[in-house]
Specification:
The chain is of the alpha+beta class. The chain folds into 2 domains: 103 residues, Rieske [2Fe-2S] iron-sulphur domain (Rieske Iron-sulfur Protein), CATH 2.102.10.10; 202 residues, Naphthalene 1,2-dioxygenase Alpha Subunit, Chain A, domain 1 (Alpha-Beta Complex). The protein is built from 6 helices and 20 strands. Strands 12, 13, 14, 15, 16, 17, 18 and 19 form an 8-stranded antiparallel sheet that branches.
Length: 353
């Protein structure tokens, strides 16, 4: 267990600048590329860290991901087609096997000797977790994220539509972990009537992850028992945040009065220097299998994210400060300060970043 208050000299050196969407250290981390359902036998292109990747699924269900560039004339491979376990480029018909090795060049005819350089470039790591496809462009220094609730049959899943916005992935992560903005940014959804004071809470760090939990009062407008007069609007809930560097976030909300748990997964993809793609999913055990209630829960969460984006998309400087002294912090900011410390340590420990 690492001491959250301890910062070595390497960390202090790493704090000389902020973390932007294209910071070179981010190539050494796991990032969500897309949802598992988006990867089929038809090749499709997804952008991450200013590079395009082609993703497709083999007949055995395995996912393949490569740079979306044919080594011949750099044509997008996502315009090609899968043929069994191979991928054929749409430009000159070159065929690549499941490992990215070229096995056919039609212009050379059968039996031709193929160059060893005729192969696709892939990320260092490809993995799937909680119905998301993750890749790490270079050898990952962070753990592959997971969400335990995704494996619990008591929970139903609902996916928000993919959102693309002008933003900093670091600042969006900071916003997700911030507890003091609820009454102000989210006055139109759940923030109205919430207590402004953030109670004291603890953050427990483990490497490039942390967990933080606290309880507070809030306006539970989703609770049918409020309109039925069974429970008051202002109720109690426990929030447990789980963070995995760099941009994988989870919030489990336990409704202590109404009962049930709402888990929000928030997965950020730094697309380019000022664009972020947002994947978000809900896991609920309190909707009774009702598609309508899940739709309402998704719509509510969309409204919450849109409230955040109205502010986040207007930031002038799109990077997360890693120098703890660059901003003024309070005891309510423990999670967001820990975010900065973890990312500062990560940047310091990644070679040539």
């Amino acid at each position: 267990m690492r001491n959250s208050l301890a910062m070595g000299s390497s960390t202090l050196l790493a704090m000389s600048s902020g973390l932007g969407n294209l910071h070179p250290s981010l190539r050494h981390a796991w990032h969500p590329l897309c949802r598992s359902s988006e990867v089929t036998s038809e090749p499709r292109s997804f952008r991450l860290l200013n590079e395009n990747y082609v993703a497709y699924r083999l007949d055995d269900g395995a996912v393949r991901v490569f740079r979306d560039l044919c080594p011949h004339r750099r044509a997008p491979l996502s315009l090609g087609a899968c043929e069994g376990a191979t991928l054929r480029c749409a430009y000159h018909g070159w065929v690549f096997d499941a490992n990215g090795v070229c096995v056919e060049i039609p212009a050379l005819g059968e039996g031709a000797t193929l160059s060893s350089r005729a192969r696709l470039e892939g990320p260092a790591g490809v993995g799937e977790s909680h119905d998301m496809v993750f890749i790490s462009p270079e050898a990952p220094r962070t753990p592959l994220p997971s969400i335990a609730f995704a494996e619990d049959p008591a929970f139903e899943r609902g996916d928000l539509p993919v959102m693309v916005t002008r933003a900093s992935a670091g600042l969006l992560a900071d916003n997700f972990l911030d507890m003091a903005h609820f009454p102000f940014v989210h006055a139109g959804t759940f923030g109205a009537g919430e207590a402004r004071e953030v109670p004291n809470y603890a953050v427990t760090r483990d490497g490039y992850t942390f967990v933080a939990a606290y309880e507070h009062e809030f306006a539970n407008r989703e609770d049918p028992g409020v309109s039925e007069g069974l429970r008051p609007l202002i109720q109690r809930r426990r929030l447990t945040y789980r963070y995995t560097a760099p941009f994988h976030l989870e919030l489990a909300i336990e409704f202590l009065d109404a009962g049930g748990t709402n888990v929000i997964g928030f997965f950020l993809v730094p697309v380019d220097d000022e664009t972020v793609r947002i994947y978000s999913s809900l896991w609920r055990d309190d909707l009774g299998g009702s598609p309508q209630r899940m739709r309402e829960a998704i719509d509510f969460e969309i409204a919450v994210v849109e409230e955040d984006l109205r502010l986040q998309s207007r930031f002038e400087i799109l990077e997360l400060p890693l120098d703890i002294t660059a901003e003024v912090h309070t005891r309510a900011d423990k999670t967001t300060v820990e975010l900065r410390r973890i990312l500062a340590d990560f940047v310091a420990e990644v070679p040539n970043s």
